[in-house]
Amino acid sequence: MNHDIMLEYYFLALNDIRNGSSIQELEEALKIYESSDEFEACAGILKAINEVKYTTIKNLKNGHKND
To answer: Residue 21 carries which DSSP code?
Structure first.
């Protein structure tokens, strides 16, 4: 697996989230990349999704607003 490509998609997915894309939209993109066997893209997008979900849950547990 090409780590550089995976990181590129990870940063692109994080940027999409910052610009208002939802987790659901990223999950739909993930399905498209899966069907095309673009595994580096899948790995990067999934890493971003998991990180955002973890951060959100962590913030909720700590009582912080998600700004």
So the answer is: -
Residue 67, in any domain of the structure:
no
Instruction: Find the length of the chain.
Output: 67
Across 11-33, b (16+ Cβ under 10 Å) vs e yields: eebbebbeeeeeeeebeebbeeb
Task: Please tell me the pTM assigned to this model.
Answer: 0.82
pLDDT exceeds 70 at position 67 = no
Give the domain extent around 54.
3-61
Q: What total of structural domains would you count in the chain?
A: 1
Amino acid at 60: L
